[in-house]
């Protein structure tokens, strides 16, 4: 068994064509939950869902989120109603009391559904309704996720990093906002002063996660701050990881990021936005897979290949390099 750690893009892209080397049934994925929000009473788990939809053969490959060919009738109607009533459709947080009451897992990231600031497709919404319904019936997020895997014939163990609330909050000169407001609604503005993973020091990884971390671990190309930060903010997660062989695939080619806000966020919290900075963020890493164009020198084994991950063939090539790196460090 080999366990992959995942945000919402890089690891799913790495696993899209990796079945020959990493069969899904033997390759658990631990997903970040700091990006999750409660929107109109429904718990939305973007990182878990990208891997779920990929494994179910339903991911929208243009965006790497949501279900392919989904409709958006409920979302459009929500907007029409808000606009008809001249309601402000910027993200509408519930009040302070509501942030810490209600479902425990949704703490510090609870928004009303008015004008829904994230685009939620109709079929996608059925996933969130089922997940939230199961949680309201008393199941944990881990159990609800396993049920969704069963519903979609996914044989992989898809493991939320914790069943406790952890919220990725971005501190800016205009105030504190959830990562999804900063990234989805405000397009990565305003400037970042600090990134906080609220709840992470009290949160614990689940037993299933701690067990999965005793197998060799691969960190697919990920945002070290908002995808791995919430996991590494949990003491037991970091401690378990430090005892296990870890291979990292860089989300950069030297200082060129493939996509997303990793560079901005790394710089904001004091890491060089580059492969060297990623290595500094992961002092427990035992080997790296870097792009052939990436000349970064590291003081651990480095394996090079073309790390572009656009197609399943790309994924198979990078998976082979990861496998070689694992053979070196396990
Ligand atoms: P998020 O949850 O969507 O923010 O995404 P992740 O934590 O999964 O991070 C995505 C990271 O994957 C970004 O930092 C990108 O630079 C990286 N990435 C995206 N596409 C590729 C690719 O084709 N190859 C590699 N090596 N990295 C990629």
Give me the side-by-side strand order of the main sheet. 6-2-1-10-11-14-15
Helical coverage, percent range: 25-40%
Tertiary shape = globular
Give the class from helix and strand content and strand pairing. Answer: alpha/beta
Would you report the number of β strands?
15
What is the ordering of alpha helices and beta strands?
Answer: EHEEEHHHEHHEEEHEHEHHEEEHHEEH
Strand coverage percent: 15-25%
Sheet with the most strands?
7 strands, parallel
The tally of helices reads 13
Identify the bound ligands. Answer: guanosine-5'-diphosphate
Low-confidence stretches: none
Overall pLDDT metric? 97
Calculate the terminal CA-CA distance, rounded to whole Å: 12 Å
How would you explain this protein's 3D organization?
The chain is α/β, with parallel strands linked by helices and 330 residues long. It has 13 helices and 15 strands. The strands form 4 sheets. A 7-stranded parallel β-sheet has the order 6-2-1-10-11-14-15. Strands 4-3-5 form a 3-stranded mixed β-sheet. Helix 5 packs across helix 6. The structure holds guanosine-5'-diphosphate. The site of guanosine-5'-diphosphate (GDP) has 22 residues, from helix 1.
Secondary structure: elements and pairs:
Layout: E1 3-6, H1 10-15, E2 29-31, E3 37-39, E4 42-44, H2 46-55, H3 73-84, H4 96-99, E5 110-111, H5 122-136, H6 141-151, E6 158-160, E7 167-172, E8 175-178, H7 179-185, E9 194-198, H8 207-212, E10 217-219, H9 229-232, H10 235-241, E11 246-249, E12 252-253, E13 256-257, H11 262-268, H12 275-281, E14 287-291, E15 302-305, H13 312-329
Parallel strand pairs: 1-2, 1-10, 2-6, 3-5, 10-11, 11-14, 14-15
Antiparallel strand pairs: 3-4, 7-8, 7-9, 12-13
Helix pairs in contact: 5-6
Bound molecules: guanosine-5'-diphosphate.
């Amino acid at each position: 068994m080999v366990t992959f750690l995942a945000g919402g893009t890089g690891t799913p892209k790495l696993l899209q064509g990796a079945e020959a080397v990493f069969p899904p049934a033997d390759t658990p994925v631990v997903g970040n939950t700091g990006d999750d929000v409660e929107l109109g009473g429904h718990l939305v788990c973007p990182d878990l869902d990208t891997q779920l939809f990929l494994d179910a053969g339903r991911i929208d490959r243009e965006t790497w989120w949501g279900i392919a060919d989904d409709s958006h009738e409920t979302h459009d109607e929500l907007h029409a109603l808000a606009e008809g009533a001249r309601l402000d459709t910027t993200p509408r947080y519930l009040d302070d009391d509501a942030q810490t009451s209600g479902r425990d897992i949704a703490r510090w990231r609870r928004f009303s559904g008015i004008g829904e600031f994230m685009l939620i497709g109709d079929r996608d919404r059925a996933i969130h309704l089922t997940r939230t319904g199961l949680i309201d019936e008393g199941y944990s997020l881990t159990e609800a996720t396993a049920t969704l895997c069963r519903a979609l014939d996914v044989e992989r163990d898809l493991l939320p990093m914790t069943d406790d609330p952890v919220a990725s909050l971005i501190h800016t000169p205009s105030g504190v906002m959830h990562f999804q407001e900063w990234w989805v609604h405000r397009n990565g503005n305003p400037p970042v002063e600090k990134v906080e993973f609220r709840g992470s020091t009290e949160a614990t990884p689940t037993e299933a996660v701690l067990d999965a971390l005793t197998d060799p671990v691969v960190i697919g190309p990920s945002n070290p701050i908002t995808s791995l930060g919430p996991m590494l903010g949990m003491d037991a997660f970091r401690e378990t990881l430090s005892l296990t062989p870890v291979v990292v695939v860089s989300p950069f080619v030297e200082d060129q990021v493939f996509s997303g806000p990793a560079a901005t966020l790394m710089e904001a919290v004091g890491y060089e936005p580059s492969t060297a900075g990623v290595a500094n963020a992961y002092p427990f890493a035992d080997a790296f897979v870097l792009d052939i164009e990436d000349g970064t020198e590291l003081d651990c084994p480095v394996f090079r290949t073309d790390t572009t991950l656009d197609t399943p063939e790309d994924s198979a090539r990078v998976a082979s390099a990861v496998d070689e790196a694992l053979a070196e460090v396990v």
